[in-house]
Design goal:
Quinone Oxidoreductase, Chain A, domain 1, globular, binds zinc ion, Rossmann fold, alpha/beta, 6-stranded parallel sheet
Amino acid sequence: MKALMYIGDQQMEVREINAPDGAFLVKVLGCTVCGTDLKTWKQGHPYFKPPTILGHEFYGRVERAPEESGYKPGDYVVVAPYGECGECEMCRSGVPQLCENKDYVETGAFCEMIEVPLSFVERGVIKLEGPDYVYALTEPLACVLTALDQLEIRPSDKVLIVGGGPMGTLAAMTLLEQGVDVRVGEINPKRQEKLREWGIPCETTDHWYAQDKYDKIVVAVNVPALIEEAVRKVKSGGKVHVFAGLPSDTELKIPAKDLHYRFVQIMGCSGFAIPAFRRAFEMIKKNPARYQALITHRFPLEKGQEAMETLAKGEAFKIMIEP
Ligand SMILES: [Zn+2]
Ligand SMILES: [Zn+2]
């Protein structure tokens, strides 16, 4: 089968590799490029050493399935790239995102065929009514829901999302749907235009952080200074969420007085657990057109390199790669 391999040094290359031959196979129809994929391509990643196949936000068509799995060849599905065991200490202590025994699909999804471990099918695979590429966004939306859950947003809260990239936008869309007063802080005029097109209110200057304006601030860009400022400026009793990943040696300067005297809470998360994946799926199903707008570009597998370059230049919002 064809696979788009990340071979290091900002290079992607289509290679012919052996197709998986397991009991449950899914033909990948599309996989969106995640911020993590882009970051890996740009500067490498401790977990994804080249040559490897990236991509984990995908949907597809069942190619092979045993009868007892409840699926048959031809079924359209979206697949969680991983899932928690439900039994380990982390799962039992209410942090399934940090499960120590996760099940994973066998490889990245920028390729033609994916194997799903049989033991994971019931938890990780969801049947679709048809081949709709919007469901590739189930995984990023699940990550967003996880962060929003953590913030315990109340209907009366004023929320600021710093950064109007795909994750920030998904967060804003979700909160708007819940009737929450939310704004996205974004300084890139092209992005502002998109956000307005989608009915998302923007803060376009650096007055984002006007003291005592926001109850919750989600920092969805990887700029440490913006996190530090959010802690100083969020309302007393408010919460700041470190949603964008930062290099692992990043240290933050947080004034202790804001935590102690102003009751500010700071938190963060990454990834998702299966219940959030299922909720994300249901949300997209209710309003697919709204989410589809986020996928602004689609590239065939062969143009994977061009896709990454387009994303790196900031010319696209969410890009889908279609094997
Ligand atoms: Zn992702
Ligand atoms: Zn577990």
